[in-house]
Design a protein that fits this description.
CATH class of the largest domain: Mainly Beta
CATH architecture of the largest domain: Sandwich
Number of strands: 40
Number of helices: 1
Largest sheet: 5 strands, mixed
Distance between the termini: 177 Å
Strand order of the largest sheet: 10-16-15-12-13
CATH topology of the largest domain: Immunoglobulin-like
Shape: rod-shaped
Radius of gyration: 62 Å
Length: 491
Amino acid sequence: METLHIKFVDAGEDFVIAKMPVTNKVHQPDGVLHGGATVALAETVGSSAVYTFEATNNPICESSQANFQLDFVSGFPYEVIPDVITCLNQPIYINYPVEPSDFDIQWSAQTSAVSTQIELLNLGLGSTLVSYTMSNDVCTLTDSLLITIENIFSPVLSDNMIACSGDEVYISIDAESVNTIWYVDGDFIGEDLMVYQFTADSNSEVTVEALNSIGCSAETSINVTVNQSPLVLINAFDLAQCAPFTVELSNVYGEEDNTTYTWEINNELINLSTYLLEVDEGALFDITLNALSSNGCFSEMSLPSVVEGWSNSHAHFSASENELSYLNPTTEFTNESIEFENLNWFIDDELVETQSEYWQYEFPDEEYVNYEVCLEAITVNNCSSTYCESVFVNTELLVYVPSAFTPNNDGINEVFFPEIKGHTDNDYQLIVFDRWGDVIFLSNDPLEPWVGNVNNGAYYAPSGVYAYSLSVKSNFTAESAHFKGHVTLIR
């Protein structure tokens, strides 16, 4: 019985209970319980149960009739202490198997009483069989438990790290940690995580409280040092305009010390902090700004297809006539613009027509005038171009000489006055002759009429027919024209 550690734990009128620890002593080579040990346990219990017992004097310890002498007395109930697996430096607390005030309990290991439990002390690495003996005034029972102590539990976090602000940081713990509680700078952030991910912002201490599979706990920490990444923000103002144009590419945050800036423009690298980009019509650019600081931190910002040169219109028109006259003051205009959405027509900066691609215009009946006609063509992106041509309204020399006048003070047709258009004020002469060929009126002032007098008012000419001679110079051709005829004076 001692070899196999077989112990009787209880007995009654019709039963006997014993236990045997299953240790390496009773294992087969493949680790399975040996059948012989099982038989030994059964035979021990069976042989002890074959007895006849009648109590006469001492009903517990003496027998008046028996087939053989019993080697045990009736035991007492107790809580079997389970085996323990723990880690080095972890306290080992176990419950009392029986009420300690009713029994004397002796341990094979050093112990210390802790409240309602017992603490096993000074046990080393490996497996130790700890026995305990429980005695009262009548009986004594002995049992044991196996204490297995593994090496110290040391959860392993990622190494201390240096990150850049804005980086995604991943901190992992080894697989032996089955339960975890995570803290950042003392603040709880999660539990039961194997990997903690966060965006680096400032220096932080990451702490993990961990338990392994056998309940051992430990704490570990790492420091995350965060360097400031360079600030990058592309100034995106007026990057799309009517072409051609020039845009300055710059960083809104300016240029930081000890930082290298690189522009990537349609895969072309330019090592400048600011850059003047020439944008032609129809051009489209992908823009990236990279910044690398001396602490190794890198930032970038990309704007795909952000710089665009909008196509401009190409305004043009034709005029049926560019040189007009009093007699023909109308011309036709035809739009010949390319890539336009809207049209505006101007004459001497005054808007006179919109949207029309074909229209006519009659110019005012004025003396020699040069008009500027312009067409503004506007695209869907409000890009515009303007085309202008000059239109001349030429002065034709027009002369009307009345054939009669009545200087009788009735207010009607009182003077003889040729009406002339298209002439210069110089080189004008009007001469009136009487019937004998004598000059009775002469003027070089185109605004001075003949009122029927003779030699500037010496006396008034009588009714009759008078000859005249008119000389004027064309305002357009600068050529002189001469006209002769007769006028009748009626009083």
